[in-house]
């Protein structure tokens, strides 16, 4: 990931409505949510939500897919993963003792099939 891409993504998330919207979309993967439902859940007018969604989409964090008369929005989990890895790639200068608490908090919330949750 380039610095400019990370800056665009972080700038898009540096606003309360957009951050709330992105987090809501992540929670509703992979089915997605319509713009009207997003606006209702976040508590903003639909046209305001559309503007926020456009900013998130330009930053590469979300995508919309038309289904009949509705556009469903989804978080681009691959971009989120790339951004997260970009931010922690050189975590703690290679000192494992400083990274251990971070790694412990990153344990998956949804273990792979066949494995019990830790």
TrEMBL record:
PANTHER family in alphabetical order: ARSENICAL RESISTANCE OPERON REPRESSOR ARSR-RELATED (PTHR43132)
Keywords: DNA-binding, Transcription, Transcription regulation
InterPro entries tied to this protein: ArsR-like_HTH, HTH_ArsR_DNA-bd_dom, Metal_resp_trans_reg, WH-like_DNA-bd_sf, WH_DNA-bd_sf
HTH arsR-type domain mapped to chain residues: 1-95
SUPFAM superfamilies tied to this protein: Winged helix' DNA-binding domain (SSF46785)
Gene Ontology MF annotations: DNA binding; DNA-binding transcription factor activity
Protein name, as recorded: Helix-turn-helix transcriptional regulator
Pfam family, any one: HTH_20
The organism's taxonomic lineage, starting at the top: Bacteria, Pseudomonadati, Pseudomonadota, Alphaproteobacteria, Hyphomicrobiales
Transmembrane feature ranges: none
